[in-house]
Amino acid sequence: MQGKPTRHSNVYRQDDGRLFVRVTARVNGKRVDRIKALPAGATETDAIKLVVEIKEALEKAGLPEAATSPLDLKSGALPTFADYVEQWVKAKKAKVRAAVIHEWAHRLAVHVLPVKVLDVEFGTLRLDQIRRMHVESWVAWAQKATQSSGKNYSPDTVAGWWRVLKAALMDASADYDLPDPIRRIDAPDLSHVERVRTQDTITVEQVTELVEKARTFVPERADEVAFLAWTGCRSGEMYGLHWADVDLDGGVAVLRHSATRGLLEHTKTGSARNVPLVPPLVETLREHRKLQTQGEVPQSKDGLVFPNEKGGFRLEQSLAKPFDALSAALGQKVTPQVLRRSLNTNLIAAGVDQFTIQAILGHTSAAMTARYAGISVDRKAGALGALCASVTPAGHTDGRQVTPGSDRGHTGLVTPAGGQVTPGRTVVTPVRRPGRR
User: Fold this and answer.
1) 371 burial type by CB count under 10 A (0-12 exposed, 13-18 middle, 19+ buried)
2) CB distance 232 to 361 below 8 Å
3) Which of 165, 303, 304, 414 has the least CB density, counted as fewest CB within 10 Å?
């Protein structure tokens, strides 16, 4: 029987559109071929089920009569995939960041375990029951999965499901000495889904406008907005910052931790980094600390710079409503990630080299880290100072002028700790918050 292969192993389609399956196996040392046509109207899912049935029948034919499972353990039946995953996630907590563990658990609980693969929930299968066809059935589902809005999930989102499923199954195979059911199976193909890459960034002028509007529309969170805008740090890094790691006189903060879902852990890259504080931000933080000592804004006995009302870690999602209000005021969707991406884009536009930008943002691979590990705080301060100095809010100027450079004391660039000033551009001055004295 001749036909063209489909995207599923062992499944073929004849010229008239009907499907048939071909399974080859070795039973008792002999090669056995099984070919079976499906009736008109049968789907590829029906064909996959038939392939599984034929393979299981051939496996039983080649096993001793007393054996009912490919693996006979003293402890009895192997765990279900759901039970294995529960223990697998717990075991990973010692080596993986809490935020990543939470994301893995969510992907498995929502997009893997409850999915019907050949009419059986993936999570209910014992590890020794999982076959290649089950994984292919999941892949077929993932390629068509839609959100509540009816839109397909993005390729990157589905790729995330696939990575955690693949990792769990590979570990299960190794732990129990089982055949790898994902061997040579391709990841879900979402080439039919348009890849929407957000291009939202805002200019330096808009960043300055946003920081000013925050004083009016979200005054209680305005200092956080300014910190995100002028450092490009991640929200969790800001909420994990302690005053002990902030040097206002030197104009630098050390990001050592990240507060994620109420837990303090290391940063995303696993290492601390120095972030220069531009002069307006230094003034903002001085005022913020003063208000904390006066009890006018939340304070923490642990010395957190931006604690919640109870003195604990703020949640990153607590910024959603403040940024919604700012987006409406600015007339453009803005999020903490947009601010981070905008700082990156604006620094590139200002001519700052990529290694300095990566050192500022802390968005790097291990190999790239090695290439810019020696970049000084002064050099990073110069880059941020040049960007901040390129904009003058209306009505706020003290007449000082600067030109960009690379190192304090040698470049004519205003840095957080002071430095040489030469004619060139007007420096941004701190915006005083009304009614907060």
Assistant:
1) middle
2) yes
3) 303
